[in-house]
Amino acid sequence: MIYIESKQDFSDAALLDAKRAARLTLDISAPVGNDFEFESASADMTIVLTDDEQLHELNREYLGIDAPTDVLSFPAAESDPETGVAYLGDILISIPRATQQAQAAGHSVEAEVQLLVVHGTLHLLGHDHATAEEKARMWESQAEVMSKLGLSHIKVQDT
């Protein structure tokens, strides 16, 4: 199940692209295990398409960082008691920031949202980039997933 919420009035084209990007990325079988072999797996997550204000507030409240960001992930590691399906957690994406980053990188908002969904999902699966070593592993995993999704042309813009 994919639940996508939009609390803001973004331009229709950007919002439609973002919703389609999230669905396209998540409709492909999820990577399972550390080797990112694609197998059939069931897991749910929530993706919230929102704005800088909400991500700024959450970043300050939960991570102690007083600044907006492009994506935040909140792992849950729970399962639905009725179905047993894993619930990975929540991913929040700032569409205005994704739009700016897409323009700077020279690709579509849809492509940027796909990258942010992959990045957020890796966080839900336990990846982090707090240290140089963690970042190298996560960026390598991210590049591998993006390649398997046919999206290797989309690159992370380090800021």
Distinctive features:
159 residues, 4-stranded mixed β-sheet, two-stranded antiparallel sheet
Amount of helix: 40-55%
Report on the biggest sheet.
4 strands, mixed
Main-sheet strand order equals 1-4-6-5
Proportion of β residues?
15-25%
Secondary structure tally, helices = 5
Please indicate the count of domains.
1
Span between N and C termini? 33 Å
Q: What is the name of the CATH superfamily?
A: Metalloproteases ("zincins"), catalytic domain
Number of strands: 6
User: Which CATH class applies here?
Assistant: Alpha Beta
CATH architecture, please?
A: 3-Layer(aba) Sandwich
Q: Runs with pLDDT <50, length 5+?
A: 1-10, 27-40
Order of helices and strands: EHEEEHEEHHH
Shape: globular
Structural class: alpha/beta
Briefly note the CATH topology name. Collagenase (Catalytic Domain)
The overall pLDDT average reads 78
SSE diagram, text form:
Blueprint: E1 2-6, H1 12-27, E2 31-32, E3 37-38, E4 43-50, H2 52-63, E5 71-79, E6 86-94, H3 95-105, H4 109-124, H5 132-148
Parallel strand pairs: 1-4, 4-6
Antiparallel strand pairs: 2-3, 5-6
